[in-house]
Amino acid sequence: MSGLDVTRLGREFIESIGRLCGPGEKFLVKFEEPTDERYGWVPTMRPIDKYIQYGLVLLDKPPGPTSHEVVAWVKRILGVSKAGHGGTLEPP
How far apart, in Å, are the Cα atoms of 19 and each of 14, 16, 70, 74, 75? Predict the structure, then answer.
């Protein structure tokens, strides 16, 4: 895919985020710059294995299971050997 196509797809992704933000939200483009495909992905084109390798899973842990149990479930579901949690907010 050419740099121009990647740049267009990136702009379309940003515009779709703007539509989610509601009417009246605008992005200011100061200058155009082509996207180099060697440095990342347009989010809508990123392969699922890259999401799993480098991504985050945000969970709202229900009361009951421990954070460590939930991490074990996520590892088993995604088939990964490494996972962890960044914090625990247990109910009072």
Answer: 9, 5, 34, 32, 34
